[in-house]
């Protein structure tokens, strides 16, 4: 901390050079003339402290942008982008403030505490509207009780209780009030299921000689381990569901309902890949070693179940030896995902305690469902590999666009996408709710060279109605056929209560229609705007 002339200098860390978006973030900070060092006067009023905190938060938001967020944010007015980015940003600021407090002088403590309190209040506001879900079952099953007892016997420390929630299945609630930064679940490194367990098994040498990669080894090992009565992880495997109900298990009717969406291709390609992998394993390994890979344990159904287990429950964790491993984390894997999670960062084992500590980034009150972020995933990814998607605005629900024309003079973006236009942050009516990189690319590609006959857009010296019309009509030509495909009648299974996969498919399709409809409505609204400009110019 630096103190000069009654000022405290609060410094945010610069973007890491290891960050793949390092250059883009540096450029955005520069364009917005945002410094990462903030001079905070120790005699600030509450109103002044709130103002400078807003500036600090703007900088922190940029530091925590991911690629999709950076694509859509542009240079538009700052504000909360989405809960994930906001919680990351506010927790960074809180960390910096808390690190200054122990060494602060008496006259500095007041303003730091004021900033701390306001930051905590902003964090609470982010989660204020999050629905914790309705508990349908207070008690645990015998298998869940055995899992919790097994964890406790092996050093797990938790402030969570398992519960069942309407529409979401199993999850966890806080057994006591948990404050920001507090550990809600601590799991010894020895309980993380990873390749170390495979290396100790009698299967390893055979799989290694057959050239099987580590991730496939984990699949094959878990297919047998789940039936091992002496398994160290018996309590965990017994608590797992017999079916995961992900998109990989969708039936024909559900897939038919997804016609016209990119999700149907994603699921079909994933299923084909898994089937090919399984058949290759049969020829290369399973049929050659029946004494190790017992036929009844290695059916296609068992293989698909194991794939769904690892897709939906595995986590990437850096172990105490510094190695990044894919692992299953008992108990933690039962927490549900949310757009406004409590637990954001949990990917590194604490080297001092040799345990994985899950800390909350926003408060979780006793009896409240505690959410864990699975990652910045689109609804299509969540459906395919987890078997659900979230209600509400998922910032990562984007529709990618594929253009044949080379990208020239259009900034740093080589690929383009759209999201629901209601999420746009631009106040310029000629952004049409569409992202700047996409508009820049299309305007460059479709630019009208006959400037003399073009009508200039008021307030935009570089835009003409002719080029804008071509841009909007191009986008309409892409999305209008998509909408017509999605408008085809749904195909249910003939029952009053459609199966889980058909219901999920129809709900996802309805969500896609909302996004595409918003793009089309924005484009048609833009054409009306251009008509008005041309009419005004003609008169």
Automatic annotation (TrEMBL):
Family annotation (InterPro entries): SET_dom, SET_dom_sf, SETD3_SETD6_MTase
Transmembrane segments: none
GO molecular function: protein-lysine N-methyltransferase activity
UniProt domain SET: residue ranges: 158-375
Organism domain of life: Eukaryota
Protein name, UniProt field: SET domain-containing protein
Species of origin: Acorus gramineus
């Amino acid at each position: 901390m630096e103190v000069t002339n009654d000022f405290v200098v609060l410094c945010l860390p610069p973007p890491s050079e290891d960050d793949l978006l390092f250059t883009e973030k540096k450029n955005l900070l520069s364009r917005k003339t945002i410094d990462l060092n903030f001079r905070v006067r120790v005699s600030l009023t509450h109103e002044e402290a709130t103002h400078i905190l807003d500036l600090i938060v703007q900088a922190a938001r940029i530091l925590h942008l991911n690629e999709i967020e950076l694509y859509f944010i542009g240079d538009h007015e700052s504000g909360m982008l989405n809960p994930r980015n906001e919680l990351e940003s506010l927790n960074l600021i809180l960390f910096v403030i808390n690190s200054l407090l122990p060494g602060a002088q008496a006259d500095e403590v007041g303003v730091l505490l004021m900033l701390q309190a306001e930051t905590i209040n902003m964090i609470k506001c982010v989660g204020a509207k999050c629905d914790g879900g309705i508990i349908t079952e207070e008690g645990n099953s015998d298998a869940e009780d055995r899992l919790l007892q097994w964890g406790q016997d092996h050093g797990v420390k938790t402030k969570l209780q398992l519960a069942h929630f309407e529409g979401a299945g199993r999850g966890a609630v806080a057994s006591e009030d948990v404050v920001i930064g507090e550990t809600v679940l601590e799991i010894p490194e020895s309980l993380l299921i990873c390749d170390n367990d495979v290396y100790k098994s009698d299967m390893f040498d055979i799989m290694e000689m057959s050239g099987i990669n580590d991730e496939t080894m984990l699949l094959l090992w878990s297919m047998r381990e789940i039936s091992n009565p002496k398994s160290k992880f018996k309590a965990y495997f017994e608590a797992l569901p017999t079916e995961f109900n992900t998109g990989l298990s969708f039936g024909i009717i559900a897939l038919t309902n997804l016609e016209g969406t990119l999700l149907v291709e994603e699921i079909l390609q994933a299923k084909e890949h898994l089937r090919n992998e399984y058949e290759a394993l049969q020829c290369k390994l399973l049929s050659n070693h029946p004494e190790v890979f017992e036929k009844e344990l290695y059916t296609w159904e068992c293989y698909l179940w194991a794939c769904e287990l690892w897709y939906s429950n595995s986590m990437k964790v850096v172990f105490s030896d510094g190695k990044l491993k894919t692992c299953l984390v008992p108990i933690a894997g039962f927490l549900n995902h949310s757009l406004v999670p409590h637990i954001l960062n949990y990917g590194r084992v604490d080297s001092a305690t040799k345990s994985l500590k899950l800390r909350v980034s926003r408060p979780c009150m006793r009896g409240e469902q505690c959410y864990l972020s699975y990652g910045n995933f689109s609804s299509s990814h969540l459906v395919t590999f987890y078997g659900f998607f979230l209600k509400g605005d998922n910032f990562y629900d984007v529709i990618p666009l594929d253009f044949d024309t080379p990208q020239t003079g259009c900034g740093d973006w080589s690929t383009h996408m759209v999201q629901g236009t209601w999420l746009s942050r631009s106040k310029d009516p000629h952004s049409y709710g569409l992202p700047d990189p996409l508009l820049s690319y299309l305007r460059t590609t479709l630019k009208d060279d006959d400037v003399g006959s073009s009508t200039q857009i008021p307030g935009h010296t570089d835009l003409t109605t002719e080029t804008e019309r071509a841009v909007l009509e191009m986008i309409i030509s892409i999305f209008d056929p998509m909408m017509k495909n999605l408008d085809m009648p749904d195909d249910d299974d003939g029952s009053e209560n459609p199966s889980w996969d058909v219901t999920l498919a129809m709900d996802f399709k309805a969500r896609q229609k909302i996004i595409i409809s918003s793009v089309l409505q924005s484009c048609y609204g833009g054409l009306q705007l251009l008509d008005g400009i041309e009419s005004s110019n003609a008169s």
